[in-house]
Amino acid sequence: MTKLSVAVFLIVVGYCQGVWIGEEYWTSVNMDGSFRDNRQVQDFIVLPPNRNLRDNLKDIYVAFWITKDEGHYEAFGTATRGEDGRICATFLTRYNTKEELCGGFRILSKHLRTGASPFQWVPANECDRKLAVSYRRKQIARTYSFHKQENFISTANLKEKSAIGVESDGIIVRVEANEFPQHYNEYVEILIKNPDLENINFEEVERLRLEREEQERLRREREEQLRRLSQYENEDNTIHNLENDNVNFRKMRRS
After folding, report:
1. Nearest-angstrom CA–CA distance, 172 and 92
2. What is the DSSP code (8-state) at residue 246?
């Protein structure tokens, strides 16, 4: 087998591992908590649980964290909206410790231009691996906590049939099919991208276009207001600078 054939084979195998989705399906949350590309919370994808939980009214979002602190590391976690309006997320670090962030991660969102949301949860034991959203051979899981009646986002490995994540109280939970096959089959779901759900809603596309145009207009207005305010403050500082009272008027005029 030639080198080219090997390369093509590896690429094909890599694609069969799952579905890679680009930035158009993610909202980047800056370190200050703001969103890029005029995104809003309404763009975040919410897939309701299929069972009764303690707090069914509270939305949770799929968060994706990439860090290069000590080499490349990626993890999926649970994001929620706090009472102060901030979006914060909880992840599992490379050392299996809890990390809570309010910026510097991504949130799974509707398509940036079309508004499409072609995602759904399927039981892990029924998942078609070729449809699973995957990064670096890791998948996105939703794990149900039987005792606490809640669900949380975790990082899965379909090849190993395992999922690991952090519950709302900080407890780290790992579910493995080898040890707990019933728990894995009943309480772990995998996120897939369903091709049948990728139909473009043109009304939604137009709504998003108008919405983002309005957001851009408001952003420019705010920037202009801040620019004028800064200009006035600089003028006030010059006019009301008391140090000028100690300078000879003629000297000031000559300068």
Report:
1. 8
2. G
pLDDT for 52-102, tens place per residue?
A: 777 665 799 999 999 988 889 999 999 999 999 999 999 999 999 999 999
- Cβ(91)–Cβ(75) below 8 Å: yes
Q: So where are the chain's domains?
A: 9-200, 201-239
Exposed (0-12), middle (13-18) or buried (19+): which is 204, by Cβ within 10 Å? middle
Q: Give the model confidence (pLDDT) of 181-195 as tens digits.
A: 999 999 999 999 998
- How far, in whole angstroms, is CA 205 from its chain's centroid? 21
Which tokens hold the place of 7? 């390369």
Per-residue buried b or exposed e for 244-254, using 16+ beta carbons within 10 Å of the residue's own CB? eeeeeeeeeee
Compute CA distances 202 → 113, 210, 218, whole Å.
10, 12, 24
Give the separation between CA 151 and CA 125, rounded to whole angstroms: 18
**Residues pairing with 63 in the sheet:** 77, 107
